[in-house]
Amino acid sequence: MILRTSLTSPFGRKPRLAAAVLGLSGRIEVELADFLDETDSLRRQNPLGKIPTLVLADGSTLYDSRVILEYLDHLAGGGRILPSEPAARFAALRLQALGDGILDAGVLRRLETMFRDEPLRSAGWLTYQSGKMSRALDALEVAPPSDSDIFVGEIAVACALGFIDFRLGDDWRSARPRLAGWYERFAARCPGFAETAPR
Ligand SMILES: N[C@@H](CCC(=O)N[C@@H](CS)C(=O)NCC(=O)O)C(=O)O
């Protein structure tokens, strides 16, 4: 399988981490993709032109990161990073949605500053997106992810926190010691964490 991604993409880090957790890294070759390059085959592999996109052995493709994680879980026998039992499954999916939502808002903030020159930037838009991130991070401080499981939710939240550190530099830790502690412990126990760090 070929994973089209960049080494800085937080959404692309999700399947890379998942593969490490599931022992599937050896079956996945990372092929760098540039979503801004209209000649990159990415746009034929995924009409949305987004990373990550997984190219299977038969040439068919899977996207987005949530679908790829579910596929990897299936390849590993199922129920490993996406629990089968309904209560645990929906809790994991909801936590993944929260982590992905932090990323969606963070990516929009980054794009606003990447693509718009200073005078054209909307402070209101940036504040609106930052509000989503703050509320989600506060919710995670009240109820941090698990210290024992590594499910899709823990993976998504870790990728979101890594992205904030790498791209935005917000101080999310000072007011959220429980979440900061969780992240530190997750970084130490999750296979592939250091190897998949954005660079
Ligand atoms: N919901 C998607 C989001 C993927 C996403 O937004 N990826 C970014 C890079 S981190 C991207 O490809 N951006 C290019 C674009 O939106 O054109 C997922 O979970 O895979």
TrEMBL record:
Residue spans crossing the bilayer: none
Leader sequence residues: none
InterPro entries: Glutathione-S-Trfase_C_sf, Glutathione_S-Trfase_N, Thioredoxin-like_sf
Keywords assigned: Transferase
A Pfam family of this chain: GST_N_2
Record CDD domains: GST_C_6
Domain GST N-terminal: 1-80
GO function terms (MF aspect): transferase activity
Protein's name according to its UniProt entry: Glutathione S-transferase
